[in-house]
Amino acid sequence: MVFGAPEAVLMDLPQLTEDQPAHRPLIAAHAVPWPGEMAVFRSPSTDGFEVLTTFGSRARIGALVSDFYAGPTSRFDFGNALVVELLTGTLESVTDLTLFGGANALAIESAPSVWEIVQAGAAELLAPGRYRLTRLLRGQRGTEDAMGNPAPAGARVVVLDDSLASLPIAEADLGIPWNWRIGPASRPVSDETYVAQAFTPEGIGLRPFSVAHVEQPWRTPRAPGDLTIRWTRRSRALAADSWGGLEVPLAEELEAYEVEILDGATVKRVLSTATANVVYNAAAQTADWGAPLGLGDTLDIRIYQLSALVGRGLPKTVTLIL
């Protein structure tokens, strides 16, 4: 049988299932005809490729038909429609309960190797392979920072289901600019049916999510010039979606944060803390601004939760009004 080179997509995504180690990237592939089994080879150079894994499922891969604009998170996005065209496979509407259980999840490549995870409750068939998806949940699994404005027409789309294969790399392999070759497992790696790609796994699944609910700072009578800034911790742990817990699981070795005090693009000061709050005292304010901040002043800050494995997580940038 004659095979062509597959359409292959290597993705660094947040952890999607409990049985998928958080640091491992995913691969999706499509080919017609499907060879039955694909092989994934890698090498740190341009030769000496060694097989890493094989997989046998064809993924639902496609592209945006039109620009896809930014929208709200933590609630339904009713203002945008996601119009996609798939190379193969179908999509269908699901109930809200099924949606909240993780159904109809798609990865949208808003910029090269930057993926927003979107879920769609309603799917309307417009033409063979073309769907208009609405009742959207945006920025899922901490990917709100990956939202394009817009993600352009033609951007790659991958349906996130069991057809994707987890690449069994070690944590020590993260950050290495590997060369990859993907093709029919029945053919040698040198065959023309293999597609070559460069891809550096970064361990996105290990990266802490951005914090939430940053409160306006307050002062205590005991230290009237000091500002206390508070926020709510989020967790990348899949169990964090439970409604029964009082607080989300930590998912990191230790709880730690860094808070940058900003003056435009300049970082004036970095405050470190092991709790979901920090004190910006009057002496530090005077050193940074010439005097303690007063009523009506604004303060730009950026908060990071820290990981022992990958360092800073996703930032949360806010302007506080004193």
Major sheet summary line: 6 strands, antiparallel, barrel
Q: What structural class is derived from the secondary structure elements?
A: mainly beta
Number of domains: 3
CATH architecture of the largest domain: Sandwich
The number of helical runs is 2
Strand order of the largest sheet: 5-7-10-9-8-11
Kindly identify the CATH topology of the largest domain: Immunoglobulin-like
Classify the beta-strand content into a percent band.
35-45%
How far from one another are the termini? 70 Å
Helix content: under 10%
| Number of DSSP strand runs | 22
* Unreliable runs: none
Write down the CATH class of the largest domain: Mainly Beta
Mean pLDDT: 93
SSE sequence, one letter per element:
EEEEEEEHEEEEEEEEEEEEHEEE
The radius of gyration computed from the alpha-carbon positions, rounded to a whole number of angstroms, is 23 Å
Shape: globular
Can you walk me through this structure?
The chain is mostly beta strands. It folds into three domains: 7-59 and 163-205, Immunoglobulin-like (Sandwich); 61-160, Elongation Factor Tu (Ef-tu), domain 3, CATH 2.40.30; 218-321, Sandwich (Immunoglobulin-like). Helices cover 4% and strands 40% of the residues. The protein has two helices and 22 strands. The chain has helices at residues 96-100, 282-289, and strands spanning 7-11, 26-30, 38-43, 50-55, 61-64, 76-77, 82-86, 105-111, 114-127, 130-137, 156-159, 165-166, 178-184, 195-199, 218-220, 223-230, 257-263, 266-273, 277-280, 298-307, 311-312, 316-321. The strands form five sheets. Strands 5-7-10-9-8-11 form a six-stranded antiparallel β-barrel. The radius of gyration is 23 Å and the shape is globular.
